[in-house]
């Protein structure tokens, strides 16, 4: 078991190597009432059961749960079971579930405790860390939300054995991202014949925890965690979420690397390494050329847009993020062609 302390608006710990069932029992014993939020499929897969102090509400899978309609159902359940300010919510599932659960906790009675229990690799290394909670809207991804840290993040890595291969690969995109922006040792570990997930998760969480401690509300520094995400979010929405978040981010990182090569001289060897590492985990590295018009419109709705100007995170070399601001549209279109199929 390894513990990383996160400094935020309230400090909390991330426990890598927790025992999920034991943690649920412990949280239930500490509170008068607890509401566990989890996708229907995971409730069945892990045989989650209600108890005297524990109620359960099921949600749809994936991004479909990050909606006002589903949030309202969580609020109604809170009211029905009598969740009070001293009670708590557990988000049990992937990143979409912890996003939803955290936002429900932030808004119910103006804020109650919540615990993140991520079951996906992406949730373990990214979504559950840092206090970002929220929903999607018709206008774009994650445009509704709040910064609201959990009481703790409890990572049971045994849950990864139940994760479909495609979702495990998608989570590797967020791990690889941490390697390119901060910790080059991650890039070595992901090339090992046998992947040490405990070590990778620990190192990736440390990267995010360090950044969050310096810039909780993303005034600037925290934006480096969005490496590959600007185009990635646009691709995710353009695909109508048929692509996993990590799959879209994989393409976005290749684009960001190519853009970095164009604008700040990132070496071709590092650009090529993006393609190699993603391909090793069967992650996509290209997107249809015909979708640029749609993507360019979606980019203007990204959270990092300022005064109508699209901003990207790039790297000048491994571990050295840079801000690429006010990039001409013809440059973006030209660089996009390098990642098209």
From TrEMBL:
Q: For this UniProt entry, what is the primary localization, expressed as one broad class?
A: cytoplasm
Query: Keyword annotations for this protein?
Result: Amino-acid biosynthesis, Aromatic amino acid biosynthesis, Cobalt, Cytoplasm, Lyase, Metal-binding, NAD, Nucleotide-binding, Zinc
The cofactors named for this UniProt entry are: NAD(+); Co(2+)
Can you say where in the cell this protein is located? Answer: Cytoplasm
Any Gene Ontology CC annotation: cytoplasm
Question: In what pathway does it function?
Answer: Metabolic intermediate biosynthesis; chorismate biosynthesis; chorismate from D-erythrose 4-phosphate and phosphoenolpyruvate: step 2/7
Which GO terms of the molecular function aspect are on file?
3-dehydroquinate synthase activity; metal ion binding; nucleotide binding
Which family is it part of? Belongs to the sugar phosphate cyclases superfamily. Dehydroquinate synthase family.
Q: What is this protein called?
A: 3-dehydroquinate synthase
